[in-house]
Amino acid sequence: MSTTLTNSTSTIRYNTIKIDNQDIFYRESGDKKNPTLILLHGFPSSSHQYRHLLADTHLTSKYHLIAPDYIGYGQSSMPSTKDFEYTFDNLSVVTEKFIKALSIEKYSLYVFDYGAPIGYRLALRNPERIQSFIVQNGNAYDEGIDNAFWSNVKKYWAEPTKQENIDFVLGLITPQTTQWQYLNGVQEKDKSLVAPDGYVSDQYYLDRPGNGEIQAQLLFDYGTNPAKYPAFQQYFRQYQPPMLIVWGKNDEIFPAEGAYPYKRDLKNLEFHLFETGHFTLETHHQQISTLINQFLTKNLNNLNINNNNPNIEMSKNPIVFITGNAKKLEEVIQILGSSLTLESRKLDLPELQGEPEDISKEKCRLAAKHVGGPVLIEDTCLCFNALQGLPGPYVKWFLDKLKPEGLYDLLAAHQDKTGYALCNFAFSRGPDDEPIVFVGRTNGTIVPPRGPRNFGWDPVFQPEGYTETYAEMDKSIKNTISHRTKSLELVKNYLFEHGYGN
C-alpha cells in the first residue's frame, strides 16, 4: 500500500510492507538513488515525530529519508504480548529485515530515545553498512540513566510485580505524562512552537486496548540495554562512525549527562546541546536540519560516496572570497567549517543596479577577471513584502542614510511588517567561466531595532518562528538558520561535488 502527499515544498510517501506477517508502516521522502538516512523514533512516539525533516527540501533534495513505525507503534501492526515478544532485540531484528526488504545496502542512522538501543544493535551486527550516526537524546552510557526517572525504572526492573512499580509504569502512558514529555524543559518562549498534534496522536496509540501491556513489557526489557553499553562503546572506538549529537539539554529522561561520554570514544564527533527538552525537533527542527545537511555532506564525501562519479572535476586552486569585512569573513568561515579553505581579498567592485541575481553574476565576472582564478562573492538583501521587495539590494544605502530605526519606519504606514532576508553567493572558476548563483532565503518580520548594532540591519530582522532578532541571537543559533547559511550550504555542496573540499 502506498499513499503520496504532495505540497509546494516536498513529497512524502506513506507505505506499508510485510515483515514476518506484520505490517510495518513507514514514511519516505527523497530520491532512492541518494544516500539513505533511516530515522528511528522513540517512546511514546512514532515516525510522525520526523515529519519536519521528511518535508525539508534541503534534506530531501540530496538524501533518501525513511522513518518506520516499530511493531506496536503508530500505524504498524500491534500484535498482543502473547503473539509477539516486545524486546529491543526483536525490534532491532524486525528493523534489520525491514531495511533489507527495501534493498538498502548502506545507510546513516538517526537515533532517538528507544531508537538508540535499536540502532546500536543494528550497528553491532552490520558495522560495514553504517555510514554515520545522528543522535538525539539517545543513551549508550551509564551516566545517562543515573537520575530520578531511571531510579524509578530500575525499581521496576528489580520488582516488576510490585504494585508501586506497576503504578509508576502506568503513569508513564497517561495523557498528562505524554504532554509533559513534549513540553517539559522547553523554554517558555518556545512552547508555542510545540504542536499538540504530537502528544495527541501519541496518546491515541497508547490508549489502544493492549498497548499498555506492550509498553510495560518493552520498558522492562530496557533493562537489558545497560549490559550492552560496553559493546556499543567498543563499536564506537573500533569503527569510529562519524556522529552528530543534537541533544535537548533540559530533558529529564535522557539528560545531557548522557551526551558528554560520547566524546570519550568518538574522534569524528560534532556536539550540539539545545535549550529545550526531550523532543528537540519540535522546537529546533530548522537548526537541526541544517546541521544534518552540513554533517552528511562533509562525512559522506569523506567516505568517498562520489569516488566513481566521472563528473567530479578536481581543483587544487584556492578560492578567493571577495570581502573586506572581517566579521562577514568570520561568519562565513564559521558556517563552512574546516572543510573548505578560503583566501580573502578586498576589491573595489562597482556598485551595480538591477535584479539581485544579475548583480551577483556581474560582480562575480568582474572579480574573476581581477583574480584570474576561482572566486566567491556575496550580496545580501533585505526585502519588505509591503514595498514589493524594496529596499532589496539597495539596503546598504538605505541603512547608511536611515539607520536601523529608519528602516523600520519605512513600514510605518503598512500593516504588513513581514519581509525576508536574501543572500546570493556567486561562484566562478575563473575569467572564462559563467558564474553560478546560490540563493538562500529566510522569512521573518521587520521589528523595532533590538540588539547590538555592529552587523548591518540585523537589529530589525526577526526570523520566522523566533522571538529574537538576528542581532540578539547567539551566533551559533543564527548560523544554523540564516539566509547566509542556506546559501552557503548550496555553495558547499557544489564545491564538494567539484573537488574543492579538503
Automatic annotation (TrEMBL):
Its EC number is 3.6.1.66. Binds 1 divalent metal cation per subunit; can use either Mg(2+) or Mn(2+). One of its GO terms (biological process) is nucleotide metabolic process. Gene3D superfamilies: 3.90.950.10, alpha/beta hydrolase. Mg(2+) binds at residues 351, 379. The keyword Transmembrane does not apply. GO terms for molecular function: dITP diphosphatase activity; epoxide hydrolase activity; ITP diphosphatase activity; metal ion binding; nucleotide binding; XTP diphosphatase activity. Keywords: Cytoplasm, Hydrolase, Magnesium, Manganese, Metal-binding, Nucleotide metabolism, Nucleotide-binding. It catalyses: XTP + H2O = XMP + diphosphate + H(+); N(6)-hydroxy-dATP + H2O = N(6)-hydroxy-dAMP + diphosphate + H(+); dITP + H2O = dIMP + diphosphate + H(+); ITP + H2O = IMP + diphosphate + H(+). CDD domains: HAM1. GO terms for cellular component: cytoplasm. Its main location: cytoplasm. InterPro entries: AB_hydrolase_1, AB_hydrolase_fold, Epox_hydrolase-like, Haloalkane_dehalogenase, ITPase, ITPase-like_fam, RdgB/HAM1. Pyrophosphatase that hydrolyzes non-canonical purine nucleotides such as inosine triphosphate (ITP), deoxyinosine triphosphate (dITP) or xanthosine 5'-triphosphate (XTP) to their respective monophosphate derivatives. The enzyme does not distinguish between the deoxy- and ribose forms. Probably excludes non-canonical purines from RNA and DNA precursor pools, thus preventing their incorporation into RNA and DNA and avoiding chromosomal lesions. Belongs to the HAM1 NTPase family. Homodimer. This is Inosine triphosphate pyrophosphatase. It comes from Cavenderia fasciculata. The gene is itpa.
